[in-house]
């Protein structure tokens, strides 16, 4: 793999960790008006998939998509302001984490509804197909979405029309307090692709290189006009569902510990050092730089004004 790309992915994972972790702390201080969903240990999925996309490609996602937003180059100060509900946020302080959109980097929508990213993602892929621009849409969702009608209808339509889409399931194994394998028939998300006649692959969601390789193949297939692929990236939720439901005493701490020991940043750091692609000093410098970038963005956002009251009804159609 290209050494520059590997270091770019390292920086994106490190920045996601720093930025998301800072907002987890800000939420605990009561500074964030909306929820904050922790992404610790799950950053490789968004980074690896987005690294395989072209700059003109699209994505739709959900509230745990911080890695995708950051890798695509979303304005960090504008993102911080948005998450803090400020007027200078990328959605005017109205979207927050749950309903974010930033078409400038191809992020067409996020949804707080389980499976809510899938129908608009299929719509974006359909539009790109009709316009014949060769663009691919990555559609991100969690494991809880695979039991919804939106998942089955969306995958069915994309497969039937051979749309240029990549369905990316971030399987962190937990939907709030429900374990996915207690409520999902079949026991394997990737195999659900068989019912729609498309490829389904299950990958190690902790290893960004493996994620990238699977996504690169899926994106190339979609761009050739051969239709969608379903990628199941297996990872684990470290902690509770979100800031509004932080408890995790119901989870298997031994399993959590095994995944935590295989943190995506640590895995990639070890690879970069072993292959002589980067030195410890270089990687340490990246770690310091993303911390400083995070603090700068947060410092900016905390000093920005809240939207004027009349903004509450602007852009609302009834």
Characterization of this structure:
The chain is of the alpha/beta class. It has one domain (about 5-305): Rossmann fold (3-Layer(aba) Sandwich). The protein is built from eleven helices and eight strands. The chain has helices spanning about 5-30, 45-50, 65-70, 75-85, 120-130, 150-160, 180-185, 210-225, 255-260, 265-275, 280-300, and strands at about 60, 105-110, 135-140, 165-170, 175, 180, 200-205, 230-235. The strands form two sheets. It has a six-stranded parallel sheet, sandwiched between helices. Helix 1 crosses helix 11 and helix 2 packs parallel to helix 8. The mean pLDDT is about 95.
Summarize the structure in short:
With 318 residues, the chain is α/β, with parallel strands linked by helices. Helix content is 44%, strand content 12%.
Give keywords.
44% helix, 12% strand, globular, six-stranded parallel β-sheet, 318 residues
Q: Quickly count the helices.
A: 11
Structure class: alpha/beta
CATH superfamily: Thiamin diphosphate (ThDP)-binding fold, Pyr/PP domains
Along the chain, the helix and strand elements come as HHEHHEHEHEEEHEHEHHH
CATH class: Alpha Beta
Helical content (DSSP H or I, runs of 4+):
40-55%
- The CATH architecture: 3-Layer(aba) Sandwich
The fraction of residues assigned to DSSP E strands is 5-15%
What can be said about the biggest beta sheet?
Answer: 6 strands, parallel
CATH topology: Rossmann fold
How large is the radius of gyration? 19 Å
Instruction: Tell me the domain tally.
Output: 1
């Amino acid at each position: 793999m290209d050494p520059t790309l590997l270091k770019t992915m390292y920086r994106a994972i490190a920045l996601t960790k720093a930025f998301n972790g800072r907002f987890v702390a800000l939420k605990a201080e009561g500074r964030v008006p909306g929820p904050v969903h922790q992404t610790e240990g799950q950053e490789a999925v968004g980074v690896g998939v987005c690294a395989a996309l072209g700059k003109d490609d699209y994505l739709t996602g959900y509230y745990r998509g911080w890695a995708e937003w950051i890798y695509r180059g979303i304005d960090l100060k504008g993102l911080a302001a948005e998450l803090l509900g400020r007027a200078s946020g990328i959605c005017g302080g109205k979207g927050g984490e749950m309903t974010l959109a930033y078409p400038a980097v191809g992020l067409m929508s996020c949804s707080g509804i389980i499976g809510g990213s899938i129908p608009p993602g299929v719509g974006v892929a359909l539009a790109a197909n009709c316009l014949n621009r060769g663009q691919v849409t990555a559609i991100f969702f969690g494991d809880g979405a695979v039991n919804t009608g939106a998942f089955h209808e969306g995958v069915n339509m994309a497969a039937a029309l051979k749309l240029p889409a990549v369905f990316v399931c971030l399987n962190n194994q937990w939907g709030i307090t429900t374990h996915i394998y207690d409520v999902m028939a079949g026991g394997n998300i990737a195999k659900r692709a068989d019912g729609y006649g498309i490829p389904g692959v299950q990958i190690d969601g902790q290893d960004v290189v493996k994620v990238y390789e699977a996504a690169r193949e899926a994106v190339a297939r979609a761009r050739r006009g051969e239709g969608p692929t379903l990628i199941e990236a297996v990872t684990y939720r470290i902690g509770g569902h979100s800031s509004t439901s932080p408890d995790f005493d119901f989870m298997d701490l031994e399993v959590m510990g095994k995944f935590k020991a295989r943190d995506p940043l640590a895995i990639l750091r070890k690879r970069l050092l072993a292959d002589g692609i980067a030195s410890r000093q270089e990687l340490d410098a990246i770690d310091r730089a993303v911390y400083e970038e995070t603090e700068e963005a947060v410092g900016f956002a905390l000093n920005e004004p809240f939207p004027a009251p009349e903004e509450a009804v602007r852009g609302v159609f009834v």
